[in-house]
Amino acid sequence: MTKIEYIKTHCPLLATLDTPADLRRLSVDELPQVCHELRQFMIHELSMNPGHFASSMGAVEIVVALHYVLDTPNDRIVWDVGHQAYAHKILTGRRDRFSENRKQGGLSGFPNPMESEYDTFVAGHASNSISAALGMSMATELQHTSRKVVAVIGDASISGGLAFEGLNNASNNKNNLLIILNDNDMSIDRPMGALSKYMTELSTSKGYNNFRYKTYQSLRRRGMMGDTGKGIVLRFNNAMKSLLTGQQNIFEGLNIRYFGPFDGHDVKRLVKLLNEVKDMTGPKLLHVHTIKGKGYAPAEADPTTWHAPGKFDELTGERAKNRAEYEPLKYQDVFGKTLVELAGKNERIVGITAAMPSGTSMSKMLEAYPDRTFDVGISEGHAVTFAGGLAREGLQPFVAIYSSFLQRAYDHIIHDVAIAHLPVTFCIDRAGLVGEDGVTHHGAFDLSYLRCIPGMVISAPINEHDLRNLMYTAQHEAKGPFAIRYPRGRGVLVDWHNEMQVLPVGRGRCLTAGTAPVAVLSLGHIGNNVAKAVAAVNAECAVAVAHYDMIFLKPIDETILAEVASKARCIITVEDGTATGGLGGAVAEWLTSRGSGVKLVRLGLKDAFIDQGTVAQQQHACGIDVESITQTIKNELSEL
Asked: What's the topology of domain 331-485?
């Protein structure tokens, strides 16, 4: 059955909806059927073309209600993270292309303004929606337009520091921002911290909130909810809340009108609520409670696993098995197992992650040593400074954060760890190209943004044994911040468990000796591509191209650089990071400082943002796949 036939047969109402304008021509009573068909369509599509499943399933009614009530795209919807927004993409002209989601040349897995006028802001990292939407809302005031602006924040993104900054400023400036809090009690893993507990408790005070909402309706009918007297009414409501519940509502404490919680799966009531609050002046927050994975029993039962489940049988929910026993483990799992092994022998080791215990495999440490493992929620900056505090008192923190997410903690790395030379080990997951998650999630910049920090050790393992060795080395040798970067996905060794040893900091190694006028330097896992390319060239061209695994970017092995510069007429550097400022940059600086005339060819990620696709496709586009590296070596040999 073709896609068109499937839609017409199983989703007849959805088949008629090419734009939100088509949706708005339906009656309110037809909207539940639209929601049902959207879920059926997503289940069918995502079972074959994997993506972020549970969050989008839970947000269907919010999407439908917003596009039904608002005049999109003139009115703005700002999504937080973007995991919630698949139904939004389907309703905004991308239904028939949805099978291209997260594929090269297809749709981004996240909202992207370059893809659609309905996507108002890039949404790949958590907690930015309120700040962005506040800016848009204030722009409408300054430009004297009547555009509505809504921020939809969910998956525990409200716990991020930037979200609090946005909330804090929302009531200090003239705006009519509407914030929808999609409260599903989840981030990717179970949410952590006092705010999560507070939101759970707040969601139970339905009696007060129903009373509050009815009171608001009564005052509104009497014309008492305009700008005149607004502060008095708000203060009265705040006082009433404190009196009846014995607690202060955090949003009302910021003078943001609060309504809720309401059932986020009652689409008809959501439409009514949105119609009633959309024209209110001043910032307001609508709190709705949803179920992550709603409409698909396996996802409702295990939302963490079904955040991004891969391929599955849409009828049974059975997930495709991705690994045979003879295949290598994922790097993250080797990290998790190794950390537990080290912690078992060293009581000073503690583990920290920011809302990603399963994604980083810090969950293994959490299970083995719960008192020494900390999930701080979507708070990367806090994670780093917290680690600094632990290190200051003699502990040895291992901080596991995705490369792209660690960007948000840059000042903390410098100010709270590096300046004081604190021995915090940064285990940087998802370094390099990440594939289908695309531009917002590539670990493209960590080599460059860390290399300029004084005292920072930067390393990258070529395989699982070296990952373990580097973790062991950090435990014994770190005198300050120590970074270990490794990619998403599987390693190269089936037998990953080795007897760990200390590696000399700042020393690389020769993998293939050579006498050819071309030598190749690589850093990290991408060295496996280089090894294959060098072997192919040496066999085909009957030459001996040398290959060095640098292991450390900082301090860089100057002995290797001096050796290569004295023997070769061309040096090729290969790295799975931006070619600006990383390994190639370090080698260029070293050669220039010594007045060397050796030619340098730098291979790495382009000076551009790289769209979604498979890792193989992205490597080819950047010229760092085996075929491209092989051709580059041949080209340089032919020119010398």
From this structure: Rossmann fold (3.40.50)
